[in-house]
Amino acid sequence: MTALHWLSATDAAQAIARRDISPVELTRALLARIEQLDPTLHAFIRLDADAALDAARAAETEIANGRMRGKLHGVPIGIKDIIDVAGLPTTCHSKILLDNVAMADAVVVARLREAGAIVLGKLSTHEFATGGPSFDLPFPPARNPWNPDHHPGGSSSGAGVGVAAGLFPLALGTDTGGSVRNPASCCGIVGLKPTYGLVSRRGVFPLSYTLDHVGPMTRTVADNALLLDVIAGHDSADPASAPSTARDFGREISRGVKGMRIGFIRHFHATDLPAHPDVAAALEEVARVLETEGATVRTVTLPSLVEFAAVNRVILTSEAYSIHASWLRERPGDYGQLSRRRLLPGAFIPAAAYVGAQRRRTQMIAAVEDALRECDVLLCASSMDPTSRIEDAAETARTYPRQARSPFNVTGHPALAMMSGLSRDGLPLSVQFVGRYFHDASVYRVAAAYERATEADKRRPPIG
Amino acid sequence: MDKDLIAALAKSAGLDKALADFPDDVAAAVAQALATTGAIHVPESPAAEPWPPMRAGIGL
């Protein structure tokens, strides 16, 4: 029998609905695992154990009385600490906001509660969802469960760590330049940046208005679709929110990829930012697996990854500076050095450069749209290297920008990262799938076919 | 880059305190801003509009 802490959310929800397990039993099992592992992994900034147990008891009573709230009734989840949970501080992992208690739930958290999910607490991040793993902040950085000497990716670090380590089956992260998909890649789990506008950002501390996304992080593709079902939907108070779209994002995950056309963006990792050999070999193997499963794979070309990254950086830094300018002027010493260095450049980017980046962005969107007229889904690298040692600041600084995630923050297309194998050193490698706007279900279809063929969801970090 | 120019840019942005306490971070920020903006091929056609397009009545 599967240990409770390794149950998928889908299996847990079904077992709870059948009353095979109780929400209290599941929550207690996860709290015990958190007590055992989190002193090393630091996934949590704030664990809200009492409230979680109260919610679990309430769920148990409701279910016993035949009242099912929704798809996640009784299933625990962790929330990145830039997302508001009423009554808890949203610190953004920063000294600046240590006492910033949220007055209301973010829309995504409210939707989780409506579906019956149990909030365990707030998860560590890079400061203000930027910067990197830092040791000069009020809370320690999270560590990778595959090897705690290594960086777990970020900025949704605690979310990636906790899901991979079996501290919880579900987490919410955010993604402005790759911050859901980076920890998913480093920790060997599934992370989706949904189509821009699909998930409300209201109640989430902004980093960059036109690049920010909220996304689900899970151990399986099916769980990811389940969580997206719960959090997606129109929000009239979010200016970027799209009109209501179809739900049931997992509707295609059993279809397989026979007849699908996959566009492989090889130049991202072959020439733009040459990847570690283990990463490149794993990507070719992903393509081979999908061909074996019946898809056709062809090479496609987009603008250079270096330019995509520059457009993302100019837009992100400009928009972020408009948010942080007054704190940077008055309290620069209250930021960690990494985030201070990430945010200050926004003071020196001319308005014309920002608008120029947004004009180039329109062309980049058109290029990806062209590729997706010829292909159903795109395949490319996520990270170009296995994750670095967390205390090796120089290696982290070298490898951190070597990624292919930010192009799809620039364009807004749905993009999913998942494990593609292990490096020779036993660290997760990753692949990324990208779909058409609002065809997040097609991305899940390809990811699920790959997951079934390789049993990627069965791999666990060596922590018991 | 010239230190006086960096100082002038920082002061014009109101970053006097950051300049005094973290001069290396400010200098690095100026260098990064220059390097990043120089890597973009801004469209030459005046008809190339920025994203997102203005759409009156959409949104709030």
Question: What is the fold's blueprint, element by element?
Answer:
The complex is a heterodimer of chains A (464) and B (60).
Chain A: H1 9-17, H2 23-41, E1 44-47, H3 49-64, E2 76-80, H4 107-114, E3 118-123, H5 157-164, E4 170-175, H6 181-187, E5 190-193, E6 213-218, H7 221-231, E7 261-264, H8 266-272, H9 277-292, E8 296-299, H10 305-330, H11 337-343, H12 351-374, E9 377-380, H13 393-399, H14 407-411, E10 415-422, E11 428-435, H15 440-454
Helix pairs in contact in A: 2-3, 5-6, 7-15, 10-12
Chain B: H1 3-12, H2 16-21, H3 23-37
Structure description:
The complex is a heterodimer of chains A (464) and B (60). Chain A contains 15 helices and eleven strands. Chain A has helices at residues 9-17, 23-41, 49-64, 107-114, 157-164, 181-187, 221-231, 266-272, 277-292, 305-330, 337-343, 351-374, 393-399, 407-411, 440-454; strands spanning 44-47, 76-80, 118-123, 170-175, 190-193, 213-218, 261-264, 296-299, 377-380, 415-422, 428-435. Chain A has an eleven-stranded mixed beta sheet with strand order 1-3-2-4-6-5-10-11-9-7-8, sandwiched between helices. In chain A, a hairpin with a 5-residue loop joins strand 10 and strand 11. Chain A is globular, with a radius of gyration of 20 Å. The two termini of chain A are 15 Å apart. By secondary structure, chain B is mostly helical. Helices cover 52% and strands 0% of the residues of chain B. Chain B has helices at 3-12, 16-21, 23-37. The chains are: A alpha/beta (464), B mainly alpha (60). The A-B interface holds A 210, 236-237, 239-240, 306-307, 309-311, 313-314, 317, 325, 328-330, 332-333, 337, 340-341, 344-350, 353, 355-363, 365 and B 9-10, 13-18, 21-22, 25-26, 28-30, 32-34, 36-37, 39-43, 48-52, 59-60.
